[in-house]
Amino acid sequence: MSAAVPIADPGDPRLDDFRDLMHADTRPDRRGIVIAEGVNVVERLARSSYRVRAVVGVEAKLTALAPVLHQLDAPVYEVDKWTLSEAVGFRVTRGVLAAADRPEPVPAESLLATGWRFAVLEQINDFENLGSIFRNCAAFGVDGVLLDPRCADPLYRRSVRVSMGHVFGVGFAVLPGRWPDSLELLRAVGVDLLAMTPRAEAVAIRSVVAPRSWAVLLGAEGPGLTEAALAAADQWVRIPMAAGVDSLNVATAGAVAFAQLTC
Description:
This is RNA methyltransferase. One of its GO terms (molecular function) is methyltransferase activity. Keywords: Methyltransferase, Transferase. This protein has 11 helices and 12 strands. The strands form 2 sheets. A 7-stranded parallel β-sheet has the order 8-7-6-11-9-12-10. Strands 1-4-3-5-2 form a 5-stranded mixed β-sheet.
């Protein structure tokens, strides 16, 4: 990277990757671009295998990122906070953004060959929950995330931000074919399927001996796993709770399960 190039005009075409980000993720012409926000997230993006297209930020944030930005083969633009906010379309408080090319999807079979601890998500459509799950997977050494076809996009801007950029380091893939029949892909390579549910007949997670290879199945906030997904699991597991409380946020529940199984 050469020195940062100053830009004073929010309409400068060099900022097009960052323009109107409130709606960018839903525009067909922008679906190949991934956006990272904030120093920590941009740094994780820069250290990942994703190809960075450009970085834009205020002087202080670019200075904080200088060691990693100098290793990038991508332009870096310096702007003031007003120019940045006007180009992006909202008040940017984190002071720096980066754009990268979306990588080619990873086949589920390839992801399963990379490890033995997984999260499997059914109908997780809340972007913040999705990002939190990726952050928790990184924290507890989960090797990858498998999504059913109805899950939200982990590379949506809000998911990336909430994940603190860990979505760039935790591999993920969409399970192909009919759900939950596609879970047979995991069973075929010896992965035990542990379904999280508050049902009384489930086994307390603290008493579960972690199998050699496992996947924790997590369902959408509120309804939880469908009956079909529960029927496809090898074992039902639950988190014991105080009377009057029957469930946790899905990302929190996943974190408890990951911690129990990896400790």
